[in-house]
Structure formats: structure tokens, C-alpha cells
């Protein structure tokens, strides 16, 4: 789960990381009032979760009320990379002389947290990581101890941060690590961490991703999750149903159990000349209702011309799946899109007996099921 | 023959009184697994499927001479349950639980480096030596005893590939589901080493997926160390960059390593026969035997 910039800034500020003063606004009048209150110059920043907001016109620096009104009017309501902007953060513009990067994430290869510092802040840090990996200093942390102050200092001095701000930067890095640790962060980043002309450091942006699996013990953060911030309707629906779902460009709808098997089904659709419309994992041990919801999801996608169900039961039972498919399909006078079903594993024989074969096509193997679904999609397409 | 588990393995089930634990303990016993005890705090003295339950893994292992544990404990308490297993006399712990917070697993990972106990999982289907023992949730009926070792990051993909093998009469020594989480215990390299050193494993299947660099590391290890022929499969070729496909680990960073193609290339370079479909993986294995 990714926090919005204004949310992450609040979390960072509460932990003691210096941030510019700012106010959230959802109307032009409120944005202008906020700007007056803060004092010019201010930055007006679209609160949507897409990268490259600045380049796409989602961040504007303004010097007076007229400019503030014009900028807020332009940004509120705009579409940034397909996402509707309904809120802006009005923020004190920082008079900076230097930009740094600090971040904390899990190094999955090492199985350890890693804190990072670079003097190449203010740019796309992923590109820096690729082109000049040595420009980012990495400090691994023993998760059972947490970050020692010397580790933060070591990283900061190693990175070549200017001496007069090094202690402050080290302090920000250590606070960021503690925050990441306490709040079950997946990633926590400040880019840029600005060095002002007064030789102070300020977090000009804030990124915080929370480990979804840990939300049960982060109730405050879980409350910050809002679906109102735009995005894909179908993906929002999938969230509601609790599916792992990704919408894709093609026309063959795919439902299966287990991420690896569903991805394999996608790959086979592609292999046999079709195009996957989505990834939908119903997860382990799904009951009939969940299966019905999955079909509802895929039928709601107007790009879908044909559907393939690929279930290999371990913990999931074939009879439950068959019942769910029947329930979903028996409500229609006419089935909206042809459905191919492949059931294997736990209780597949019971499932085959229950399944209403007037409504679906049954295939025994994964390969046959996928080929049939691809052929069905081609037929509809013609 | 087998790796890690066989019909002598004496198993404790942590969480045996819960829904999942109870059901799968029953399935394991039915399969022939030597389940000797359960461990659930506060439930000591009860019996489940005729198996005695203890309050702690330590007691269960001491009293019943158990040497392996299977963890069916909800995510919020699962890391603690794994710590308990690591700090008990068992030398193998298999964690089935899905959805354990990553930071908990980082702490488990640190502990693993200090103890001799082996961990499989979490978020995995477990491990099976066909005809002898299964520790986990794998559907026993699709497996058959034989001479192919299998290691996989995905449970259902394991079942798919195994069924493609079994349908042709190709059996398995042991299948290890290592799990798809970002931080796991036993990984590809550990599993490949076990199979390479097992005299009864004549061919190996390795099923990977996008995300992380474990498959690339496995490829380097195969190049250096593994003489047994290996067939591979990588799921997620069509996954769009930057999208999360289920597992937290399955994120493609856009370019470079971690993509399906970089994994396939690394495996091909190491002499692994990578199949485009599970059926092709079975073709490769058939040609090795």
C-alpha cells in the first residue's frame, strides 16, 4: 500500500524529519487561501500516485495569488497519466542549494534491510542505480538490532555529503530507518532531501510504501488507504473482492489459483497466439462465492471476448469451484462470453460431475484449455 | 531415496487445533506421514486425529522424539512460531503460512544464520517424498515415486508440472515448494545442491518466476556445481513491467535482472533446458532419462 505524498510527509514530520509547511486542498479557492497563509513562493503539487508528476505538469511553482489560482485551476481536475487529480498539496517552496537522496528498503537478495544515501538526489534514482551504482552508498542493517548511529554516519560520510550538514543527514537517515521499521515499510524514501541556503535539510518529497501483509498491526496507516484517488474501476472492484488482479491489454480473460499457475496461463495464452486481458488469482481454498465474484470481475471487463478457468486444486477444491461457476452462469439468459474450464487436483472429479456442461466447455489439460479459449476469442473478434 | 524427508521423519504440527492445521494434519496422516505430535499454546493434553498435543514445540519434540515441524499458524503469529521451531530440537521446519510480514521474515532470516535448523517456506505448499511422507498441503495423489527432483517457487505450478510428469509415468524423488515470498529459508541453490548430492535423483526440474534474482543465482550455481541434467520453467513472461502479480516478490523492475527473459537467458547459458510450456518441461525431462 502506497501512501500519498501528503500522508507520507505527515508520517515523516510526526517522526521528527523536517518537512516544508504545507496544506492539502481540493478546491481552487482553498488552494489560494493556503498559499496566502504559507507565504509565497509556494509549490502546488498534484496528489496522485504516478511518477514524473513535475514533467507531466502536475507540479507548479508560483509567486503570487494570481499564479496560484491559475496553477490550482490547471492542476485540479487534470488527468495525470490516466489518473484524475482531485487534490493538491500547497507547500512552502524551499530555497535550496543542493539535493540528496536517502532511502530504506528490504534487500531481498540479502534478506536484510538496507539504508541508502546518495549525493545524486533530485533525479531518477533508479537510473543512477543502473548507470553509476557506486554513486549510491548502501548500508545493510541487522533487523534484530536496528540501525546504529555509526552506521548512519558511515553511510553519509562515505557518500561525500558536505561536512556541515552530514550530522543532520545522518539523523534523518536514522529516523527514516526507525520509521520504516516501526511502520512496516516496504520502501521509505526522500528524494530530494534538500539542503537549504541556511544549511538546513528538508524533505521536499516523501515516499512510503507499507507492507500489505503487515497492515493488521498498522491500523493508523490502514485507515489512510483510500480508493477515491482515481485509478482503474476494475482494479478497485478487485480490491473490494480481495483478489490479486491486474488488468492487461488483451481479450482473453484468465482466472486461476496461485500466482505461478495464473502467470503460466497468461504465458500460454501468449504462446498460442492470444492476448491475456487480465491476471486474476482467486487465491488458495476459494469457496463458490469467490469463484462467482471472479467471473463477475472478468465479465465486467468489456475487452474480454473469452474466458479460461484454470484450477489446479491443492487447498482449493474442484467441487467448490464448479459450484461457483454454475452459480455465476445460471443467472444469465445468455452467457456473455464463452467460458472454458479446466479442473485438476483436489476433488476435480466431483467438480466435473457438478459442473453444468451446457454452460461451459470443459478441457482436460492446461494446453487444450488455453488453445480453446484463444480460438474462442478469435471467433468473437471476427 | 529422497532428500530431507522420508517415512522415518517424525513430524510436529504447529497449529494442529486450527482449521487448516487440523485438516492438513489429517491429510498428512492419511498420506502416511509420521505425524507424532501437535503443538498449540494452551491446548496441551488434547488429542487431534489421535495425536497428542503439547503446549510447546520443545515439549512435543522431546516427548515424541520429533525431528521436523510444519507450521500452520496465522500470519500475525507465524514468525514467532517459526522462531519457536528454530529454538527447539527439530532440525527441519516447514512454514505453510501465507502473508507473513516481510520484516518479520528478515528477523527470522537473521536467526536462521545462527542455527542449524533448516527452514522451508514460508508461503509454500511444503515438501513431499512420494509414497513416504508429505509435510504441507500438496495433493498427494498426483505424485509418484521416481527419480526426478523438483524445486519450485509456486505451489500450483508445482502441481501442474508434476502432473505432466506423472501422466507419462515419470516419478519424483522429492518435490520442494520453496515459496514465492521475498525472504525464504531454503532456496533454489540449497535445493539444487541436495538433489545433485542425492544418488537417486537423475534429473531436476526447477520452476521459477519473475522478480528477484534467485533464478540467476541458481543458474550460476548449476554452471559451477550441478552435473545432473536440469529442465526449467519461468512463469511471468507476459507480466507487464512494474505490475505486481500476486506475490510481493513478483515485481519486474523494468529492465535488467528479475525479468523472465533475464532468468531464461541465465538458465540457458548454464545448460538448463527451459521449456515454453509445462508440457515441454516434461519433454526435456523425458529426454534426460
UniProtKB/TrEMBL annotation, chain A:
**What's its catalytic activity?**
GTP + succinate + CoA = succinyl-CoA + GDP + phosphate; succinate + ATP + CoA = succinyl-CoA + ADP + phosphate
**Annotated GO CC locations:** cytoplasm
Q: How is the cofactor bound?
A: Binds 1 Mg(2+) ion per subunit.
Essential cofactor(s): Mg(2+)
**Residues given in the record as ATP binding sites:** 45, 52-54, 91, 94, 99
Q: Which residues of this UniProt protein bind Mg(2+)?
A: 191, 205
* A Gene Ontology molecular function term of the record: succinate-CoA ligase (ADP-forming) activity
Name the InterPro entries for this protein. Answer: ATP-grasp, ATP-grasp_succ-CoA_synth-type, ATP_grasp_subdomain_1, Succ-CoA_synthase_bsu_CS, SUCC_ACL_C, Succ_CoA_ligase-like_bsu, Succinyl-CoA_synth-like
Pfam families, per database record: ATP-grasp_2, Ligase_CoA
Gene Ontology terms: biological process = tricarboxylic acid cycle
EC number(s): the record gives: 6.2.1.5
Residues that, per the record, bind substrate: 257, 314-316
Question: What residues does the ATP-grasp domain cover?
Answer: 9-221
The protein's role, per its UniProt record: Succinyl-CoA synthetase functions in the citric acid cycle (TCA), coupling the hydrolysis of succinyl-CoA to the synthesis of either ATP or GTP and thus represents the only step of substrate-level phosphorylation in the TCA. The beta subunit provides nucleotide specificity of the enzyme and binds the substrate succinate, while the binding sites for coenzyme A and phosphate are found in the alpha subunit.
Subunit structure comment from the entry = Heterotetramer of two alpha and two beta subunits.
What does the similarity note say? Answer: Belongs to the succinate/malate CoA ligase beta subunit family.
Q: What is this protein called?
A: Succinate--CoA ligase [ADP-forming] subunit beta
Automatic annotation (TrEMBL), chain B:
- Please state what the protein is called: Succinate--CoA ligase [ADP-forming] subunit alpha
Summarizing the function annotation, the protein's role is: Succinyl-CoA synthetase functions in the citric acid cycle (TCA), coupling the hydrolysis of succinyl-CoA to the synthesis of either ATP or GTP and thus represents the only step of substrate-level phosphorylation in the TCA. The alpha subunit of the enzyme binds the substrates coenzyme A and phosphate, while succinate binding and nucleotide specificity is provided by the beta subunit.
Instruction: Pinpoint the CoA-binding domain residues.
Output: 4-100
Q: Which GO terms describe its biological process?
A: tricarboxylic acid cycle
**Pathway recorded for this protein:** Carbohydrate metabolism; tricarboxylic acid cycle; succinate from succinyl-CoA (ligase route): step 1/1
Q: Does the keyword Ligase apply?
A: yes
Catalytic residues (UniProt):
247 (tele-phosphohistidine intermediate)
Keyword annotations from UniProtKB, A to Z: Ligase, Nucleotide-binding, Tricarboxylic acid cycle
By its UniProt entry, which Gene3D superfamilies does this protein fall under? NAD(P)-binding Rossmann-like Domain, Succinyl-CoA synthetase domains
Its domain of life?
A: Archaea
HAMAP family registered for this protein in UniProt: Succ_CoA_alpha
Catalytic activity, EC: 6.2.1.5
Provide the catalytic activity annotation.
succinate + ATP + CoA = succinyl-CoA + ADP + phosphate; GTP + succinate + CoA = succinyl-CoA + GDP + phosphate; acetate + ATP + CoA = acetyl-CoA + ADP + phosphate
Name the enzyme's class: ligase
Matching entries from SMART domains are given as: CoA_binding (SM00881)
Show the NCBIfam families listed in the entry.
PRK05678.1, sucCoAalpha
Report the GO molecular function annotations. acetate-CoA ligase (ADP-forming) activity; nucleotide binding; succinate-CoA ligase (ADP-forming) activity
The record's subunit annotation is: Heterotetramer of two alpha and two beta subunits.
Name of the gene this protein is made from: sucD
Source organism: Haloarchaeobius litoreus
For the ligand (substrate), the binding residues are 159
Membership in a protein family:
Belongs to the succinate/malate CoA ligase alpha subunit family.
Binding locations of CoA: 17-20, 43, 96-98
Amino acid at each position: 500500500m502506497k501512501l500519498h505524498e501528503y500522508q507520507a510527509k505527515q508520517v515523516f514530520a510526526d517522526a521528527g524529519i523536517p518537512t516544508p509547511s504545507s496544506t492539502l486542498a481540493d478546491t481552487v479557492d482553498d488552494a489560494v487561501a493556503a498559499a496566502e497563509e504559507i507565504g509565497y513562493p509556494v509549490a502546488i503539487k498534484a496528489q496522485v500516485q504516478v511518477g514524473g508528476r513535475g514533467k507531466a505538469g502536475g507540479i507548479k511553482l508560483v509567486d503570487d495569488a494570481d499564479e496560484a489560482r491559475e496553477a490550482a485551476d490547471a492542476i485540479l481536475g487534470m488527468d495525470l497519466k490516466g489518473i484524475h487529480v482531485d487534490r493538491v498539496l500547497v507547500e512552502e517552496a524551499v530555497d535550496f542549494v543542493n539535493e540528496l537522496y536517502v532511502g530504506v528498503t528490504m534487500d531481498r537478495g540479502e534478506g536484510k534491510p538496507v539504508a541508502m544515501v546518495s549525493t545524486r538526489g533530485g533525479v531518477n534514482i533508479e537510473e543512477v542505480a543502473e548507470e553509476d551504482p557506486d554513486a549510491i552508498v548502501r548500508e545493510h542493517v541487522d533487523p534484530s538490532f536496528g540501525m546504529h548511529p555509526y552506521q548512519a554516519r558511515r553511510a553519509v560520510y562515505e557518500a561525500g555529503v558536505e561536512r556541515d550538514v552530514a550530522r543532520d543527514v545522518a539523523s534523518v537517515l536514522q529516523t527514516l530507518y526507525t520509521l520504516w521499521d516501526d511502520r512496516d515499510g516496504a520502501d521509505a524514501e526522500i528524494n530530494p532531501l534538500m539542503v537549504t541556503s541556511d544549511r538546513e535539510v528538508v524533505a521536499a518529497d516523501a515516499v512510503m510504501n507499507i507492507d500489505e501483509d503487515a497492515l493488521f498491526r498498522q491500523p493508523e496507516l490502514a485507515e489512510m488507504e483510500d480508493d477515491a484517488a482515481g485509478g482503474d474501476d476494475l482494479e478497485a472492484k478487485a480490491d473490494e473482492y480481495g483478489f490479486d488482479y491486474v488488468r492487461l491489454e488483451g481479450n482473453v480473460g484468465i482466472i486461476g489459483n496461485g500466482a505461478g499457475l495464473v502467470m503460466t496461463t497468461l504465458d500460454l495464452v501468449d504462446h498460442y497466439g492470444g492476448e491475456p486481458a487480465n491476471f486474476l488469482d482467486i487465491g488458495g481454498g476459494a469457496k463458490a462465492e469467490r469463484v462467482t465474484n471472479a467471473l463477475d470481475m472478468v465479465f465486467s471487463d468489456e475487452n474480454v471476448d473469452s474466458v479460461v478457468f484454470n484450477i489446479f486444486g491443492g487447498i482449493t477444491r474442484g467441487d467448490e469451484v464448479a459450484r461457483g461457476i454454475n452459480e455465476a452462469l445460471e443467472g444469465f439468459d445468455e452467457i456473455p462470453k464463452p467460458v472454458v474450464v479446466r479442473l485438476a487436483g483436489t476433488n476435480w472429479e466431483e467438480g466435473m460431475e457438478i459442473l453444468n456442461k451446457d454452460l461451459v466447455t470443459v478441457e482436460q489439460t492446461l494446453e487444450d484449455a488455453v488453445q480453446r479459449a484463444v480460438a474462442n476469442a478469435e471467433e468473437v473478434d471476427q | 531415496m529422497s532428500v530431507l524427508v522420508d517415512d522415518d521423519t517424525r513430524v510436529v504440527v504447529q497449529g494442529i487445533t486450527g482449521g487448516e492445521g487440523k485438516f492438513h494434519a489429517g491429510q498428512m496422516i492419511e498420506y502416511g506421514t509420521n505425524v507424532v505430535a501437535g503443538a498449540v499454546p494452551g491446548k496441551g493434553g488434547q488429542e487431534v486425529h489421535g495425536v497428542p498435543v503439547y503446549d510447546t514445540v520443545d515439549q512435543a519434540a522431546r516427548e515424541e522424539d520429533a525431528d521436523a515441524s510444519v507450521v500452520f499458524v496465522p500470519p500475525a503469529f507465524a514468525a514467532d512460531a517459526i522462531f519457536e521451531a528454530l529454538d527447539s530440537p527439530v532440525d527441519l521446519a516447514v512454514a505453510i503460512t501465507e502473508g507473513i510480514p516481510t520484516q518479520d521474515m528478515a528477523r527470522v532470516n537473521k536467526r536462521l544464520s545462527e542455527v542449524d535448523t533448516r527452514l522451508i517456506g514460508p508461503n509454500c505448499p511444503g515438501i513431499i517424498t512420494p509414497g513416504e511422507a508429505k509435510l504441507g498441503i500438496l495433493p498427494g495423489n498426483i505424485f509418484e515415486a521416481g527419480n526426478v527432483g523438483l524445486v519450485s517457487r509456486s505451489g500450483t505450478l508445482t502441481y501442474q508440472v508434476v502432473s505432466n510428469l506423472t501422466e507419462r509415468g515419470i516419478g519424483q524423488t522429492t518435490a520442494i515448494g520453496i515459496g514465492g515470498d521475498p525472504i525464504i529459508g531454503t532456496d533454489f541453490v540449497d535445493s539444487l545442491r541436495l538433489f545433485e548430492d542425492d544418488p537417486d535423483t537423475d534429473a531436476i526440474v526447477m520452476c521459477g518466476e519473475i522478480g528477484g534474482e534467485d533464478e540467476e543465482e541458481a543458474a550460476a550455481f548449476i554452471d559451477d556445481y550441478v552435473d545432473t541434467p536440469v529442465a526449467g520453467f519461468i512463469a511471468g513472461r507476459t507480466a507487464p513491467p512494474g505490475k505486481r502479480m500476486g506475490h510481493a516478490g513478483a515485481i519486474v523492475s523494468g529492465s535488467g535482472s528479475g525479468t523472465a527473459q533475464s532468468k531464461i537467458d541465465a538458465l540457458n547459458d548454464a545448460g538448463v533446458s527451459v521449456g515454453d510450456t509445462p508440457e515441454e518441461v516434461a519433454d526435456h525431462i523425458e529426454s534426460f532419462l
